């Protein structure tokens, strides 16, 4: 009888498990740099250094507002369809408040028809759409002068219904903001619409005007010195605040709580990411193996980038606090050498127990023979 079949089986299991097991999560960046294979040519490894930080800050710091938005200056309000006007003719209450003193001002309002015309006693239909309040006042006064000596006329809008700004996306109050005689800035419109802090991507505010869409990083423009307070809106403008559904950073490896981190602001640094997930594990992580993996949309024409931070030095925390993340970045913290060895041993021991059991069985068989 062959006395060692179980022993051989146990040794084979141990060998196979040792060959298949990869002890700990580890990224061999030296191999990525030196290997010219097709797979590894898809990535570029870049060390996070003060020079790299300075280059990124010079790019991110240049947040400007398109000149076309700054050039626009609001003009006097122009009357539109469905606006409700209150026309006063001094010393002539029959024209000013034909409904009587007891009626509210709205009951005595003159509403502009859909075709832009307005009927007024004595002078008939008047084309008022597109006129300023002063222009309409002069027209009414001139025509009433045929019937009233030196008429004193005043015109006011009591309901602004013709001109609106559309707001959509991650606002608390999406819909319409009416344009009235007061100049409306972009900041005021955002304040009226209200930002939804849970859903908003503050880096992705768009303003569409006359078919042209302008992309604005609202977070950076309001956090730094800019001219955003000088941007005025006009009728027909569309404001859209993007959602942060896809604005996430994924954290993996030897950290406290690996997970996906959503963020709504323009700037989230590597140190903020690590702090949010409990930091690199002090027992199992390698200070030399902190990576930020940044993909590209077209791998056929572009190379993905792996940024490496050597956190073994205290100065690395300064770099981490300045390194800005981008949506869909993957932060990977590798395992320390001792961690990989411990995990390797933890995989070996179950196999070793199988091997030991096989030896004991073979000894019992031999003794029984």
UniProtKB/TrEMBL annotation:
GO cellular component: a single term: cell outer membrane
Protein's UniProt keywords contain Manganese: no
Annotated Polysaccharide export protein N-terminal domain residues: 73-157
Ranges of residues in domain Outer-membrane lipoprotein Wza C-terminal: 338-364
Annotated keywords: Cell outer membrane, Ion transport, Lipoprotein, Membrane, Palmitate, Polysaccharide transport, Porin, Signal, Sugar transport, Transmembrane, Transmembrane beta strand, Transport
All residue ranges annotated as the SLBB domain in the record: 163-240, 248-333
Compartment(s) of residence: Cell outer membrane
An MF annotation (GO) of this entry: porin activity
Pfam families given in the database record: Poly_export, SLBB_2, Wza_C
GO BP annotations listed: monoatomic ion transport
Annotated membrane topology: Multi-pass membrane protein
InterPro entries to which the protein is assigned, alphabetical: Poly_export, Poly_export_N, SLBB_dom, Wza_C
PANTHER family according to UniProt: POLYSACCHARIDE EXPORT PROTEIN GFCE-RELATED
Family stated for the protein in its record: Belongs to the BexD/CtrA/VexA family.
Protein name: Capsular biosynthesis protein
Species the sequence originates in: Halopseudomonas pelagia
């Amino acid at each position: 009888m062959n006395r060692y079949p179980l022993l051989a089986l146990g040794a084979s299991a141990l060998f196979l498990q040792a060959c298949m097991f990869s002890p700990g999560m580890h990224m061999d960046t030296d191999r990525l740099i030196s290997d010219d294979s097709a797979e590894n040519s898809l990535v570029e490894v870049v060390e996070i250094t003060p020079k790299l930080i300075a280059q990124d800050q010079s790019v991110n710091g240049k947040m400007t507002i398109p000149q076309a938005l700054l050039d626009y200056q609001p003009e006097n309000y122009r009357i539109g369809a469905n606006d409700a006007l209150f026309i006063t003719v001094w010393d002539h209450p029959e024209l000013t408040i034909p409904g009587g003193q007891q009626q509210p001002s709205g009951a005595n309002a003159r509403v502009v028809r859909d075709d832009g015309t307005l009927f007024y006693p004595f002078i008939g239909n008047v084309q008022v759409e597109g006129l300023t309040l002063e222009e309409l006042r002069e027209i009414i006064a001139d025509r009433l002068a045929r019937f009233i000596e030196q008429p004193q006329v005043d015109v006011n809008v009591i309901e602004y219904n013709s001109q609106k700004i559309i707001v959509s996306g991650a606002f608390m109050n999406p819909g319409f903001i009416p344009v009235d005689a007061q100049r409306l800035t972009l900041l005021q419109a955002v304040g009226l619409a209200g930002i939804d802090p849970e859903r908003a991507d503050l880096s992705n505010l768009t303003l569409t005007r006359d078919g042209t869409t302008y992309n604005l990083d609202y977070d950076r423009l309001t956090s730094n010195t800019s001219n955003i307070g000088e941007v005025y809106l006009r009728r027909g403008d569309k404001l859209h605040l993007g959602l942060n559904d896809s604005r996430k950073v994924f954290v993996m490896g030897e950290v406290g709580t690996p997970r996906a981190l959503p963020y709504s602001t323009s700037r989230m640094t590597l140190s903020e990411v690590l702090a949010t997930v409990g930091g690199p594990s002090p027992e199992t992580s390698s200070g030399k193996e902190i990576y930020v993996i940044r993909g590209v949309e077209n791998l056929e024409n572009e190379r993905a980038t792996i940024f490496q931070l050597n956190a073994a030095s205290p100065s690395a925390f300064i770099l981490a606090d300045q390194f800005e993340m981008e949506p869909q970045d993957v932060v990977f913290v590798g395992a320390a050498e001792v961690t990989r060895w411990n995990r390797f041993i933890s995989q070996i021991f179950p196999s070793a127990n199988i091997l030991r059991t096989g030896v004991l069985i073979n000894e019992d068989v031999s003794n029984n023979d």
